[in-house]
Amino acid sequence: MQIRFSLSFFVILLIILNVLDILTTYVVVFCLGGIELNPMAVSLFASVGFLNASIFKMVCFILLIPLILVVPFKVSKNESDKKIAKVFSWSMFIFLDSFYAVAVINNTINLVKI
To answer: Which of these, 10, 43, 66, 77, is most buried using a 10 Å CB contact count?
Structure first.
């Protein structure tokens, strides 16, 4: 039996992982007194607050998703370029999904430890 994933699965997974990252970060850092390790996030939280930083992050991802999905195919001039664009899109979503999965797992481990 072969399992096939569509690109939309990875897009939806990325959105879900981002929401989970925001929620687990909020609980660990602001409810349980944990420490945010990302210096950019710490600076952003201090200057605009957690809610505005979270909204900014989600807007960035909403803008990033079409860039990853559309732009590589728009600049493709032939079939070979379209194959490269497809590999690029898949690779980017798998990388981003993996990155945020690790972040959520780390937050969850810290949630259990605290």
So the answer is: 10
Contact by Cβ (8 Å): 22, 57: yes
Phi then psi for residue 8, to 5 deg, are: -65, -30
In sequence order, which ranges of the chain are alpha helices (DSSP H)?
7-25, 39-48, 50-74, 79-113
Q: What are the CB-based long-range contacts (under 8 Å, 24+) for 24-32?
A: 24/104, 24/107, 24/108, 24/111, 25/107, 26/50, 26/54, 27/107, 27/111, 28/107, 28/110, 28/111, 28/114, 32/111, 32/114
pLDDT in tens, the chain (114 residues): 566 678 889 889 999 999 999 999 999 998 988 888 889 989 999 999 999 999 999 999 889 888 888 888 788 888 888 888 888 999 999 999 999 999 999 999 988 876
**N residues, the chain:** 114
Residue 85: both structure tokens together: 């664009």
- Both tokens of 65, joined, read 């998703």
